[in-house]
Amino acid sequence: MSLIPSFFGRRSNVFDPFSLDIWDPFEGFPFNNNRPLADLRPSFLGGGEMSAFVNAKVDWKETPEAHVFKADLPGMRKEEVKVEIEDGGVLQISGRRNKEVEEKNDQWHRVERSRGEFLRRFRLPQNAKVEQVRAAMENGVLTVTVPKVEPKKPNVRSIDISG
């Protein structure tokens, strides 16, 4: 095995890092490379026609006044999204994007947009006011604001020193 690449002819040693043979791990697999990977997964993993819309990206930041959650839900309407607070202080954001209605003369060339259901759950900290949660949706971004309980100031009293 040589560390210098050969410029005179093709090398075919699989253990040689400078070999010109390129191994394709998907060679011979029965799928079309133009289909998205979500369509290739088995249905029990959320693949196929109704692939799960599980990757709803959510940011969670804490400000001095509140916990703020921002979820990217492009193309969804507020009627398709549910925001719930479960017992024990669990914030649940869920929704469903349905498949578009197809007409008989339509011919699809590529389907990459996610569809199906999504569900994200977050355990809220003890300082969350779960009875005052607000949610708003604008331009495909859901913003959920959970106000925080104001921290109690310690009760300090002065002690007279005798003597």
Description of the molecule:
- The protein has 163 residues and is mainly β.
- It is 0% helix and 28% strand.
- It contains no helices and seven strands.
- It has a four-stranded antiparallel beta sheet with strand order 1-2-7-6, with no helix packed on it.
- The termini are far apart.
Fold blueprint:
Layout: E1 58-62, E2 66-72, E3 81-86, E4 90-97, E5 116-123, E6 134-138, E7 141-147
Antiparallel strand pairs: 1-2, 2-7, 3-4, 4-5, 6-7
Proportion of residues in helical segments: under 10%
Q: Which sequence of strands runs across the widest sheet?
A: 1-2-7-6
Taken as a percent bin, the fraction of beta residues is: 25-35%
Distance between the termini: 91 Å
Structure classification: mainly beta
Instruction: Return Rg in Å.
Output: 28 Å
Largest sheet, in brief, is: 4 strands, antiparallel
Helix count, DSSP H or I runs of 4 or more residues: 0
Shape: rod-shaped
Q: How many beta-strand segments?
A: 7
Spans with pLDDT under 50 lasting ≥5 residues? 32-52
Helices and strands, in N-to-C order? Answer: EEEEEEE
Output mean pLDDT. Answer: 76
